[in-house]
Amino acid sequence: MHRRAFLGLTAVVVLALVVAGVSRHASGQSRESMPRVGMLTPAPSATAKPAWDAFREAMKELGYVEGKSVAYEYRSAEGQPERLPELAAELTKLPVKVMVVANTPGNLAAKKATTTIPIVMVAVGDPVRVGLVSNLGRPGGNITGFTNLSGQIAAKRLQLLKEVIPTATRIGMIGNPGDPNALVQIQDAEAAARELKVQLRLFTIKEAAQLEPAFEAARSWRAQALLRLNDPLQVSLRARTIELAAKTRVPMMYSSRADAEAGGLIGYGVDPLESYRRAASYVDKILKGTKPGDLPVQQPTKLELAVNLKTAAALNVKIPQTVLVQADQVIE
Length: 332
Hints:
Rossmann fold, elongated
């Protein structure tokens, strides 16, 4: 009798374990067995959230469900780029299967942290000129991803700004020359300025508190227009930058359509979420065995121009028809 009871109890336990195993398999992998995808950004989390949400959504469309078939490890420097090496090292020690890394400073830190874990770049200016990859077509090594061509675009922004303010001979640039991506933009803008016969001057901001003094310095220099460089602080300072441009009444060129939608005069650049969405396809390929060095670094598929006529009227600036016909969006 005791033996029968024991055997019955054993059968129940075995059955329970089998059911539990089937249930766990049905609900997804255990966290330990799921591929870990690292995400690293220098930007404040609140600023970066829409971009990373776009990445996660694109991953979901490819079948990766967070907590069931993929685990994300997110790290943000919260606007303090000096923290990036430490955060990149954290991700490599977990370790993660692949890292998706935003902006040039983040990728430079990730490159120093690992030569083996695949890295997918997003929102990077010129990866060749800053030394992240040797060439775009076949990057080799453990790094690939998406560039926003910020240097070439900075030159085009300056040309458009000169077209909007044809009398401008003194144009100020606002940004952080310590950011490698911004430095590329400065170099390309200076080359364009020589052709346009325009004098450029850089007004440095390395932290939020320097933004208002930069505008005051530009006004003292009698800048006739301003160019906002694209750097990790650009998005988080968007609202304050637009406010100061309106206050000082200096026409300003911004780096994206979203800036014009937020009240800036004119914005030209890539969709800031595009490279994050596209990064999901590269993560998928890498998790399935493709080597990152065999994936070409991709360039933007589209550049967007937006003009805010309400802001133009407030500044008494007449936008030329030659610019309006190029615009993807005209805000009235």
